[in-house]
């Protein structure tokens, strides 16, 4: 008797309750990472942001492993329309664009930050310190402008992230939504934005994620590393003779935060590229 080929849809069991078989371990792993990010506390501090970026790295690793399964590839290649493929590829490009913006917004202030630190360590003149502070604040102004544009773009893509079905496309779109929301929290944190309307900002994506809070909406969070340095340097420029004792510690904390996030976002970028390549390979074979 000829062997009966297993149905790849049943083997993979993409979160359908109609099958009695257990989901593939990689599907369970993917959902575990996804649910952990969706249910985690708002990224309203440097440490929580770093933790969520690491969580996104784990989610992308899990996504890529899932895409490497032959059963997954069969399901995608056989059942997906060109529209579904385009949606997924467009989404991966959006994530890479947002990721690139986040990297730029972390890198841009670094040079002027070093300039201020150097002036303090060398006990430079007030003029040198003031110039360094002014350069840093100018860089921050440019960063905030770029972030406003990025947040506007994010607002424009939320409707594309609403999940309607329990299938592989929806799973990957959920991952995209969680990634977008974390980047949004990061960008809001960098630009010191808060107090915006939760209803208007999250009306679409909340249908998917139902987050407890988001960083931009938090009125109770403490002062961020960026806020502390911004305020201190503005005060220094106004007062001329302001003490730099506390400023040095704030600058060092901000430097470590930027370095930590920059490393994490760079690693995440590589993983996003790898996942995109995996998707392209499935549909180009």
UniProtKB/TrEMBL annotation:
Domain of life, per lineage: Eukaryota
GO biological processes: root development; shoot system development
Protein name in the entry: DUF241 domain protein
Organism: Acacia crassicarpa
Lineage, top ranks: Eukaryota, Viridiplantae, Streptophyta, Embryophyta, Tracheophyta
């Amino acid at each position: 008797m000829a062997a009966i080929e297993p149905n790849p849809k049943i083997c993979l069991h993409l979160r359908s309750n109609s099958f009695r078989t257990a989901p593939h371990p990689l599907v369970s792993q993917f959902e575990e990472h996804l649910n952990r990010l969706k249910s985690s506390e708002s990224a309203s501090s440097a440490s929580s942001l770093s933790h969520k970026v690491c969580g996104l790295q784990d989610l992308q690793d899990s996504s890529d492993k899932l895409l490497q399964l032959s059963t997954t590839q069969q399901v995608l290649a056989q059942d997906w329309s060109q529209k579904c493929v385009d949606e997924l590829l467009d989404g991966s490009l959006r994530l890479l664009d947002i990721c690139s913006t986040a990297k730029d917004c972390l890198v841009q202030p670094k040079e002027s930050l070093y300039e201020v630190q150097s002036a303090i360590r060398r006990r430079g003149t007030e003029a040198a310190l003031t110039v360094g502070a002014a350069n840093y604040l100018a860089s921050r102004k440019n960063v905030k402008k770029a972030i406003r544009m990025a947040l506007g773009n994010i607002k424009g893509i939320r409707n594309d992230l609403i999940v309607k079905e329990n299938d592989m496309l929806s799973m990957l779109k959920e991952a995209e939504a969680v990634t977008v929301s974390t980047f949004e929290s990061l960008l809001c944190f960098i630009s010191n934005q808060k107090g915006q309307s939760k209803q208007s900002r999250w009306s679409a994506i909340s249908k998917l994620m139902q987050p407890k809070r988001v960083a931009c909406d938090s009125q109770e969070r403490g002062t961020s590393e960026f806020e502390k340095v911004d305020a201190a340097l503005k005060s220094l420029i106004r007062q001329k003779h302001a003490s730099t004792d506390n400023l040095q510690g704030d600058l060092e904390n901000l430097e470590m935060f930027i370095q930590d996030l920059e490393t994490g976002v760079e690693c995440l970028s590589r993983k996003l590229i790898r996942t995109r390549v995996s998707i392209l390979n499935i549909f180009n074979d």
